[in-house]
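User: Is it possible to get a 3D structure for a protein together with its bound compound? The compound here is phosphoenolpyruvate. I've pasted both below.
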Amino acid sequence: MGGQQPDDPAGRRDPGAHRVLRAARPAGTRVQVGTVEVGGPGFVVMAGPCAVEGTEQLELAARAVAQAGAHLLRGGVFKPRTSPYAFQGMGEPGLKLLVDAGRRHGLPIISEVMETEQLPLMAQHADILQVGARNMQNFGLLRALGKLRKPVLLKRGLSATVQEWLNAAEYILAGGNEQVMLCERGIRTFETAMRNTLDLAAVAWAKERTHLPVIVDPSHATGIPSLITPMSLAAAACGADGLLIEVHPRPEQALCDGQQAMSPGDFATLMQRLPGVLATVDRHLWTPAGPAQIAGAR
Ligand code: PEP
Ligand code: MN
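Assistant: Yes, that's possible. Here is the predicted structure of the complex:
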């Protein structure tokens, strides 16, 4: 490693992260979520509302993303809100709605776990446990997730360096849970035109230096629906393994993050445009059989 510490991906002294490094698993980690594989040649799209709000809203969102070809259904039931007076999520009844909607449409589900106390419930029902940006360094939660054998999607903190992000992932791997996906969701910079600054170089960096799948969340990264398509295509081009996108059937009525929600129509168009970009980097949208078999079956 040319004089660098072997356990130091950024080239600075850091004795922490080594299990996450590419050298620990040169072929890369593939995370199995139900029948869906994340981190292989298939590009995986997770989509749905920011928050589960009720039966009808969720059904419309789930149906729309499933019909457009999404692979997983997202929906928050425990919401980390900046204001204590904002909608905090439906909690356990919302989780039941999410499970049912996922089953109806054949999609595994991803949902955020905010506290260690929520883990038994969430681990029983969610296929991927999402750690939100505000919890990236909740070390008690990370340690508890390390004891599980369940897929975890670890979002990058609002102002976290890539090194801090990797160390957070290292906590989970150190506990023995190797099913970790990193998620770049934009970082806070001096720029205020967008909600955050999407750090796509960090995505390419994490793909190069670690063996973990990397997912991009263009919704929180930009906060602007019209930017979600171009940033999704850019994420596909720069080596990301998938996307996490907020889609709402009626964005103007959303109880959470409505201003950044993609409409079902725009999401369907994005799904149609992704294969063209993915082909340029020898990837394809994930399918159970792989692209060749699907084409042959037609
Ligand atoms: C979310 O996915 O709805 C969310 C709260 O994201 P983040 O933790 O990235 O802000
Ligand atoms: Mn959100």
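The radius of gyration is 18 Å. DSSP finds ten helices and eleven strands in the chain.
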